[in-house]
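Researcher: Go.
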Amino acid sequence: MLTNVLWRSVIWSTGLRRAASGKMRVFETKLNSKDLVTATDREIEELLIRGLRQRFPEHVYIDEEGTAGASTGRKLTEEPTWIVDPIDGTTNFVHGFHCSCISVGFWLDKRPELAICHNPTLQLVFTARRNRGAYLNGAPIRTSGQTELERSLIMQELNAANLGCEHRDILWQNAVGMLLKAHALRTTGSAVMDMCLVAMGAADGYYEFYPHAWDLAAGTLLVREAGGVVMDPAGGDFDLMSRRVLAAATPQLGNQMVQLLGDKQIYHQRDDEPQKSNSNSNSIFK
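Model: Structure:
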C-alpha cells in the first residue's frame, strides 16, 4: 500500500509537468533573493500531503513549504514519518534547467524505509525500499563501486548561504582541495539529483553543507540500497536533521573524502531547532 502511494506521486507530477510550464517562471522569494518558491511547489506538496493523509492520517509529515502545518513540527521521531520535497532545485525549475526533482521519503524508527525521487523533465523515476534494492524506471541500479578519490567524479553544492564571511574560506578550500584531488567536480543545483547520480553510478560521491532533511530523506535510502554509504562529512553517523551530508559509492571512497575535508567543516542551524529570526534574512550571504 505504501509503495502504491509513492507511485501516485509520479502520476501527479507527470500531470503537473505541462500545467506548470506556463507559470514556471513566476516565483516568490523566501529567506533571500536566491531562495525561491513557485505555485507549482505548493501545488505538488499539497497534492502529496493530502493524498498521503487520506490513507495515513495518524502519520507524521515533514515538508518544505509548510503544507503539513506548523503543529507537526520538524522533529524526526520513531513515529512513521513522511518527508516531502515538492521541487528540489526550484531555481533550476524556474529557469527550465532539467535538474529538478520531486522527493518523497518514508522513515520509521528514525530509519529510511521507502523512497521515490522523480525527475519529470528527464522522465527518471528512482525508487527504493529497505533491504529490497534501488531502481531506476524499474531496473535495478548500483553505485559505481569506485574506491579511489583520484578516479572519482564528485558532486558538490556551494549554496549561497555558505558564502558569508564565516564560511566562505572553508567552502573554497574544500572545493579547490576536492577539485585538485578528484577526477572532476560537478554541481546540478539539486541535492536530490546529486544523490540519485551517486546511486545510479553516474557520479561517485557527493557532499554538501546546508541541505535540508527533505532534500536527503529519500536519496539516503537510494544510495544505501544501491550499495553506497551516507555519513556525516566529518566521518560520523549521518544525522538527517543536521544539514550536512556525504554520500559515496563505497566506504573507502567516503573515508578518503572525509580525510580531505578534515577539520574544514561548516555547521548551520539544524532543521529540528526553532528557526531564529534575523534582520539580515534577505541577504544572500546570510
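Model: The chain has seven helices and 14 strands.
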